[in-house]
Amino acid sequence: MPDTVKDTEVAISVSNVSKSFKLPHEKLTSIKGLLINTFRRGSKSTYDIQQVLDDVSFEVKQGEFFGIVGRNGSGKSTMLKLLAGIYTQDSGGIDIHGSLTPFIELGVGFNQELTGRENVFLNGSLLGFSRAEMLAMYDDIVLFSELERFMDQKLKNYSSGMQVRLAFSIAIKAQSDILLIDEVLAVGDAAFQKKCYDYFMKLKREKKTVILVTHDMSAVRLYCDSAIMIDKGKIVQSGKIERVAQAYQRLFNDEIAETVSGEPDDQKRWGTGKVRAKKVDVKVTAENIKITANYTCVKAVDAPVFGFNVYSPRGMNLLEGNTIREKVETKPLKPGENVTITWQFPNVLASDTYNISVSTCDLGIHEFYDWLNEAATFIVPKDGSTAAFIDPPLQVGKITYS
Amino acid sequence: MRQYFSKQNRALLSELVRTDFKLRYQGSVLGYAWSLLRPLLLFGVLYVIFAVVLRTGTEIPHFPVYLLLGLIIWTFFTDMTQQSLGSIVGRGDLIRKIRIPRWIIVFSSSISALISLVLNMVIVMIAMIINHVDIMSTVAYLPLILVEVYVFGLGISLFLAAAFVKYRDITYIWEVLLQVGFYATPILYSMSNIPLRYQKFQILNPMAQAIQDARYALVSHDPHVITIFRIFNGGWYMLIPFAIVLVALLWGIYYFKKESRFFAENI
Question: CB A131 to CB B261 under 8 A?
Answer without folding.
Answer: no
